[in-house]
Amino acid sequence: MKINIIVSVVSLILVVGVVIANIVINHKGNNSSTNPNVKANYSRVEKICQSAEQKDLCVQTLSTVNEASDPKEYVAAIVKATTESVNKAFNMSDKLSVEHGEKDQGIKIALDHCKDMLQFALDSLQLSTDLVGGKDIKQVHDQSADFSNWLTAVISHQQTCLDAFDNDKHDEKAVKELLNNENLDHVGKITGVALDLVADLTNILQEFGLQLELKPSSRRLLGAEEVDGEGLPTWLSASDRKLLAKVRMNKNAPMTTVMVAKDGSGQFRTIMEAIDAYPKGLQGRYVIHVKAGVYPEFIIVPKNAVNILMYGDGALNTVITGHKNKHLDGIDIMNGATFANEAYGFIAKGITFENTAGPEGHQAVALRNQGDMSAFFDCHIVGYQDTLWAQANRQFYRNCEISGTIDFIFGTSATMIQDSKIIVRKPNISMKQVNVITADGTQQRSMNSGIVLQGCEIVPEAELLQVKSEIKSYLGRPWKALARTVIMESNISDIIQPEGWMYHPNNIGFLNTLYYAEYGNTGVGADTKERVKWPGYHPTISTNEAHRFTARQVLQAGPTSKAEDWLRATGVPFTLGFRK
Q: Residue 208's CB: how many other CB atoms inside 10 A?
């Protein structure tokens, strides 16, 4: 019996030895140190990933690509990995909704928001996939502005998903942490890798021996030679010129498309009815004239309703109003915005968007905007806390009035606000509220996001002026770790505290990573001598540094795109560079 056991053990040892030997031999045959192809590919991947913040994740992801002579294959691989990550997060949120949604309405609402946001993220990634799949790598490079914007939007939507949960409720917080740890955290990291690669695309192409000839910029400001006798840009299409001529020069002209009027003199009595009537497969712009009146509506422009031009009879005459809020009504900000735009190419002119919940309502959004290449001109955006949620993508505001108290311009987008009046209001003194104008949500280095105020007036409303000694007002505070905000060529009244900026005690670590700057400002409140001494704050920056935050740069997201192309198409006046 013992002999049989010994023989069996010896046989087993011999078999295992053979298996191990084969494994070792095969391993040596495929080892990057001996296989020149694998070694060369690994070396190339390491070079491609050298600028990525999550370098190990980058190498791990791109190492799955067989050695390629076309750098587009590596770019396609990172986009594919990002899409797969978002899909997993979407499926996970759906699974959690089934498991927990029936038991807790708050969890169900938060997870429903997550699914919406992740679908928007997938839409942005589909645009990225189409770009990489349909163009050669040089064309992808030329369109890197759009590429960067779409990837930034993915992180914005991921962030909105997480922010939908109430951390003060134990069950919601637990589901949020599960979703984040299992999926969403990876979505942020892998998207960050993709952003880093797009930002470094010129160097990556050089690694493949591709030298790109980047033509110098020939951009210019809107000059007299570009305006016709009616004051309209000469480079507009015939149809848009005709439309804008009617909008600007002749209010009595027949409507190109539809009219909304409370008195029944138009095709629709409500704005939402006009939006619901958006023609399927429309080419060109859908124009909605909203006649004078107060419209108590809650409106969402869906993502399929692209290229809407909505204009009123002046911001003092055409008013869209609501009062939904977090504190008094228990309605989260995703469902509470008076007006929400989710569509590409939306333009608004001469309209007020307001939330009348007051300072007691806490979070009460007047306008939520995530539409890429959207513009607001001669509009009033009125509220208290969280008035304007510049949620995602490229956004432009000109000649507007934006008013509020706490974080009343916030979001994670490329937001340029020019020649506008920023009105700081009287908060609730008994609640010990303070005023904070901006709260940017940038959280990764290569994101194309941030808030820029250029050529604006920062002033108090009359009610605040009477009690300004009792209320502290600040230019901004960081919402996320790499918050990015610049105030330039603006007039700042003495309503702003000498220290200028504030922070939340829970976010003290952000003071090292944020980017706040001021440039060329005037007014009593523009004195930077007593400003905060944070590592990330820059009381004065050079002209070259400030140039990074002009519309030409902020709204294009890259060196080869043309910001003026889409700004011109809006018909809204703009300044690409400095005002002075």
A: 16
| CA–CA separation, 398 and 376 (whole Å) | 6
Q: What is the pLDDT of residues 76-85, one digit of tens each?
A: 999 999 999 9
Q: 39-207 adopts what CATH topology?
A: Butyryl-CoA Dehydrogenase, subunit A; domain 3 (1.20.140)
In the structure, how many helices (H) and strands (E) does the chain have? 17, 26
Cα–Cα distance measured from residue 573 to residue 333, given in angstroms and rounded to the nearest whole number: 31
Tell me the average pLDDT across 332-358.
95
Over residues 223-281, the pLDDT tens digits come to: 333 444 444 444 344 544 554 554 443 344 333 479 999 999 999 999 999 999 998 88
- Choose among 159, 153, 151: nearest CA to 184: 159
Catalytic residues: 386, 407
CB atoms closer than 10 angstroms to residue 258 = 19
CATH class of 224-570: mainly beta
Q: What are residue 318's phi and psi, to 5 degrees? A: -105, 110
Structure tokens at 381: 């955006």
Boundaries of every domain in the chain: 39-207, 224-570
Residue appearing with tokens 């797969």:
84
Angle between helices 144-163 and 170-179 (to 10 degrees): 150
For residue 389, give the nearest of 356, 423, 438 by alpha carbon: 438
Exposure string over 239-254, b if 16+ CB within 10 A, otherwise e = ebbebbbbbeeeeeee
- Is it true that 39-207 and 224-570 share their CATH fold? no
**CB atoms closer than 10 angstroms to residue 85:** 24
Distant-in-sequence, close-in-space partners of 505: CB < 8 Å, separation ≥ 6: none
Residue 329 has what pLDDT?
82
pLDDT at 97 over 70: yes
* Dihedral of the alpha carbons of 273, 275, 277, 279, in degrees to the nearest 10: 170
